[in-house]
Every structure is written in C-alpha cells, then in structure tokens.
C-alpha cells in the first residue's frame, strides 16, 4: 500500500495534512489524522464523533490503534478522542523527551489543556492509568467518569512478582532484549493475551511497525520498562490520593487471563474504588478491548448511558 495523505478537519492546534505511513491499516483505522504541537513535541490523535467526550489513553507498547473498535462504535453518540503518547504510533519521537511516565503525564496534561477538554469520561489501559489518572487527581472537576482496563496506580515495591519482572527488564540484559530482540512486542505482548491466536499477524503488524528501529525501542519502550519500579514514588503519590476518585462513577473491566496484571491487582482497584462497577472478562487477557471488543463495548455503553 502506498503512502496516502489524509487531511485533518479544522480544530484547535491541527497541523497541515499528514502523510499516512504505508504500513497503516486504514480499513481498521479509518479515522482522520490530527496533530497538536505541544512544548514536548507533536502529538497525533483521533477526534471522532459528537456528543459527550470520551478520552482514551493507551499503554505500552501500543498506540491509539488499540481503541479502534470502541471508537468506531461509540463515535455515533460520543466524541471519542484518542492520542498517541509521544514516541508511540504516529506521534513525534523527540530526542529531548525522557519517556518516563512522569514526562508522559505532563505532556498529556498539556494536550488536554490545549484542547480545552472538560467533563469527560477517562478510559485508561495499562500504563495509561498512571499516566492519565493525574488528570482526575489534580483536576477532579474535569473527569466525570472513570473506566479502567487492566491498569494500576500504586507502587509495585511490595509486589515480589512485579519487582522480579522489573529487575529482569530494567538492567543491561533488559535493555539488550528490548533494543535488539524487540522483547516487549515479540514476547511480552503475545504472552499477555488470553488467547494468542487473537493477536493475528495483521493486528500484530500494526504494533510492530512503529518500532522497527532498535534505538526507538530502547528510547521509548525500555524507558517505561525501567519505570515499573524506577517511578515508584510517582505511583505511590497517586495511591495516597486515591480517595479523591471515590464518588466518581467508575467501571473496571478486567481480563482475567492476563499473565501480567493478575486478579490480585483487580482486588486492589476494588479497594480503591469500592463503589465501582466491576466486569470480569473470563476469556480476555491484558487487552480486553482487543480480545473481546463486543463484551467491552456492551459494558461500556451501559455505563455511559447509566
């Protein structure tokens, strides 16, 4: 497929039309491409539909492509916004950016400020949790509802299993695995699916394509691997403020076959958000919205309409 050029609808901060990379599946991801220049770099995002705003924040090693099923379905009744964090997907990969969760949180806050987003539903997955939840903790009036899919907002220092994993990937061996073997995309991602067959070659290709370069894998992906314990103070500060989230309507969607974020993490969320509606997805792993999109969509629609 040859590179295409798609013009972006007029919107605050929208840049000139962007060339679409030849690897992009424009059938599965048929959205207009928007770009916003931030102090940290150019952030690509999707902004589809009209109505109450839903902001989707992805984790690692993915990008806004992971939200495509939900965006296509919900954009008939909602405004669906899904940025690519800096360094991911179609966003810029600036050399000066340090790609820590703290830095991503600051860039995301700037993105939300520039778009003037208020009274929105925040949907987070994986690293999208600790990166985006400061939006709700620091500006509680902005975030109307919370939707959490296999994510976290606390330090892993007291979790021996996660500490062991973090030690594996944060040292010299982990850096080598990430840079030279594309470890997070070729090993960790398939292993966290409930059914690996659902990560088809065509879907996997959409996540592999942005990280063909070993320097980029070390710069962007390994930075977050190191931060599993390296940013413990950042996560702990969120957990200390968790009561600020109580009282907000919340939905927790959890893939029960996730080998990375196992059921005890769900119990931690239930402690933090005791009034949240919890939907356990028995057949899904770490990416419920990729693996069982119809079940996720059904629960999300009911939540948004409640």
TrEMBL record:
Keyword list, A-Z: Hydrolase
Keyword Phosphoprotein: no
GO terms of molecular function: hydrolase activity
InterPro entries listed in its UniProt record: AB_hydrolase_1 (IPR000073), AB_hydrolase_fold (IPR029058), Epox_hydrolase-like (IPR000639)
Residues forming coiled coils: none
One Pfam family in the UniProt entry: Abhydrolase_1
Residue ranges of every copy of the AB hydrolase-1 domain listed in the record: 52-292
Taxonomy, superkingdom: Bacteria
Record protein name field: Alpha/beta fold hydrolase
Lineage, highest ranks first: Bacteria, Pseudomonadati, Myxococcota, Myxococcia, Myxococcales
């Amino acid at each position: 497929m040859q590179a295409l050029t798609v013009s972006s609808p007029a919107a605050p901060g929208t840049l000139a039309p962007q060339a679409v990379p030849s690897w992009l599946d424009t059938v599965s991801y048929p959205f207009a491409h928007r770009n916003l220049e931030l102090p940290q770099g150019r952030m690509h995002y999707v902004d589809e539909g009209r109505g109450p705003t839903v902001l989707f924040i992805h984790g690692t090693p993915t990008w806004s492509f992971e939200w495509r099923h939900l965006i296509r379905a919900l954009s008939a009744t909602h405004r669906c916004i899904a940025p690519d964090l800096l360094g991911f997907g179609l966003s810029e990969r600036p050399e000066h950016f340090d790609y820590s969760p703290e830095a991503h949180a600051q860039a995301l806050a700037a993105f939300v400020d520039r778009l003037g987003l208020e009274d929105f539903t925040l949907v987070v997955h994986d690293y999208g949790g600790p990166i985006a939840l400061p939006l709700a903790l620091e500006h509680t009036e902005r975030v109307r509802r919370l939707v959490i899919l296999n994510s976290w907002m606390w330090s892993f220092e007291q979790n021996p299993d996660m500490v062991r994993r973090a030690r594996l990937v944060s040292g010299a061996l982990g850096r080598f695995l990430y840079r030279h073997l594309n470890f997070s995309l070729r090993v960790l991602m398939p292993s966290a699916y409930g059914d690996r067959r659902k990560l088809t070659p065509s879907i996997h290709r959409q996540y592999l394509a942005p990280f063909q370069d070993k320097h980029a894998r070390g710069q962007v992906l390994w930075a977050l691997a190191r931060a599993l314990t390296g940013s413990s103070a950042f996560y702990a500060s969120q957990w200390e403020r968790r009561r600020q989230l109580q009282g907000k309507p919340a939905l927790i969607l959890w893939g029960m076959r996730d080998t990375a974020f196992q059921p005890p993490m769900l119990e931690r969320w239930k402690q933090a958000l005791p009034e949240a509606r919890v939907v356990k997805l028995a057949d899904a792993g770490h990416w419920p919205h990729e693996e069982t999109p119809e079940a996720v969509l059904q629960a999300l629609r009911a939540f948004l309409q409640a």
